[in-house]
Design a protein that fits this description.
The protein is 64% helix and 0% strand. It is an all-alpha fold. The longest helix is centred in the middle third of the chain and has 28 residues. It is globular, with a radius of gyration of 42 Å.
Length: 285
């Protein structure tokens, strides 16, 4: 009986030396390495016909490795919808930039927000202008002029102005409740006669009222040229005081002027004629 040492290495390895090793070594040929020209023909044919070996060679190719590394490094394996979500639209970028500029300008222009601000000494004058554009003085003054007016034309004008002031309060309150933009951080809540909706900033009710009343006075009151200039100057100072006092941002005042300008057009469309006014007064009597 032959001894175990006498057995050939091929027999001990369970295969023939043609598997890729010499008779005295336990070498196994890797499927991912190409065979040399000196390899046996049947191994070359078997490796070329094996689909798994072909896939392994394709996966190990330099082009495939470069493509996989570049895709992994750039996209990080994100789905297409996530990649689209990471790219903001131009409109969103424009709005964000506008908001940043608005906040920066509003903070720089709030020079009367406190007594220790750079223009703190002008704060009492700005608060006086603030009161001149408040809704309560305008409502009381318009109602008093309506009561004291003797002519039908005067009552007509004052009644429509009163209707415009009430319309302004309703529309501004609705927009503020919908938008809910907070007032600037440097604002002090020491305003005259505030309500629950006044904690919001957009739009500026003083600016809407100044624009609407300014157009109304210029259109329905016979004023001399200096008085017309004073009306325009008052409306501009009311809007400017809102930013200087830190009550509103710049965009709040700008939108408020535009909204008040459009409100006057709405008042003109809903204008109460003398016949309607006489009918209302007759029903009251």
């Amino acid at each position: 009986m032959p001894s175990p040492k006498a057995r050939s290495p091929a027999a001990r390895s369970g295969g023939s030396p043609a598997l890729g090793g010499s008779p005295g070594r336990y070498d196994f040929m890797s499927l991912t390495q190409p065979l040399s020209r000196s390899s046996p023909p049947h191994l070359l044919q078997r490796q070329a016909s094996d689909p798994s070996t072909a896939r392994l060679r394709a996966s190990e190719s330099p082009t495939r490795r470069r493509g996989s590394s570049s895709s992994t490094g750039s996209g990080q394996g994100l789905p297409e919808e996530d990649g689209l979500r990471l790219n903001p639209s131009f409109l969103r970028v424009a709005l964000s930039s506008l908001l940043a500029v608005d906040l920066w300008m509003s903070k720089r222009m709030g020079v009367c927000a406190c007594e220790d601000s750079s223009w703190g000494s002008v704060r009492p004058l700005m608060k006086l202008i603030e009161v001149s554009g408040h809704g309560i003085p305008w409502l009381i003054g318009t109602a008093y002029c309506l009561y004291k007016s003797d002519s039908t034309a005067g009552q007509e004008v004052m009644l429509n102005l009163l209707m415009g002031l009430l319309l302004d309060l309703v529309l501004v309150g609705v927009v503020k409740a919908v938008v809910r933009r907070r007032r600037p951080a440097h604002n002090r809540m020491d305003m005259f006669a505030t309500f629950s909706v006044d904690r919001y900033s957009f739009p500026s009710g003083h600016a809407t009222r100044a624009a609407m009343c300014g157009r109304f006075l210029l259109a329905h009151l016979v004023l001399a040229a200096p008085l017309r200039v004073l009306v325009l100057l008052w409306a501009g100072l009311v809007g400017l005081s809102r930013v200087l006092l830190g009550r509103h941002n710049v965009t709040d005042v700008m939108f408020g002027f535009w909204m008040g300008y459009c409100q006057y057009n709405l008042v003109e469309m809903m204008w109460l004629s003398p016949q309607t006014l006489q009918g209302m007064l007759g029903m009251e009597v």
